[in-house]
Specification:
Structural class: mainly beta
Helix content: under 10%
Strand content: over 45%
Largest sheet: 11 strands, mixed, barrel
Number of strands: 11
Number of helices: 1
Order of helices and strands: HEEEEEEEEEEE
Strand order of the largest sheet: 1-2-3-4-5-6-7-8-9-10-11
Shape: globular
Radius of gyration: 21 Å
């Protein structure tokens, strides 16, 4: 009996130690997006985003996105994207390509997106920089509450390439509301729960964000 009690005590001590070394951070994000809808299914999008971490008390950095998408048919689209990030004095260049499938049933829209990205970080005096490659698979569903209000959820593992093998670093789980308050003008309010995995002391990010989206349709 004493041995069992000792094992249980060691287990609780181990869990408590892990919890103390793991961190939970509340972050906030604010962004503005502009989407240009062109002919024949082409779309160009850009976004500027700022992030705050350390329980939203510290300005972490800003990001500028540029993306080009092409609708291939009724269900499939493909795109390429670039992101420039300025984070705490360091610059990041991220390139990615993706293919996405969507299927609409009644008021539901189901989606599956596969993304491959390569991110390069540069430092002062280091023009070559270092590159990291990720594979991301996002599964989502959106429900049209009204013509102007949507609710959506998604889950997406970020798998880091390590010695030729992709290992999951963290999961991005997202839920959000999107409201079109004027024609081609909408606002998206979202929450992200992002826990680390495959780490001895996994951290967790709780992210609250708002994105103002403006669209332009060409004739």
């Amino acid at each position: 009996m004493k041995k069992y009690l000792k094992l249980i005590t060691l287990l609780f001590v181990s869990l408590a130690t892990q919890a103390q070394k793991s961190e939970v951070d509340l972050q906030t994000r604010t962004s503005v997006s502009l989407n240009l809808n062109l002919k024949k299914g082409w779309q160009i999008g850009t976004e500027y985003r700022v992030k705050f971490n350390e329980n939203s008390s510290n300005y972490r950095g800003s990001y500028l996105y540029l993306e080009v998408d092409k609708k291939l048919n009724k269900y499939l689209s493909a795109g390429v994207a670039y992101r420039f990030g300025s984070v705490e004095g360091d610059n990041f260049h991220r390139f990615s390509g993706n293919i996405e499938g969507k299927y609409k049933f009644d008021k539901f829209t189901f989606s599956l997106r596969e993304t491959y990205q390569s991110q390069k970080q540069t430092f002062i005096g280091d023009d070559e920089g270092t590159a990291e490659n990720y594979l991301r698979t996002r599964l989502g569903v959106k429900y049209a509450i009204t013509k102007k209000l949507d609710f959506g959820i998604s889950t997406e593992p970020f798998m880091h390439k390590n010695d030729g093998v992709f290992e999951t670093d963290f999961w991005r789980n997202r839920a959000g509301l999107s409201y079109e308050y004027m024609k081609n003008k909408s606002v998206n309010l979202y929450y992200i729960w992002q826990p680390d995995v495959n780490k001895k002391y996994p951290d967790t990010k709780n992210i609250i964000g708002i994105n103002f989206i403006f669209g332009i349709k060409t004739k």
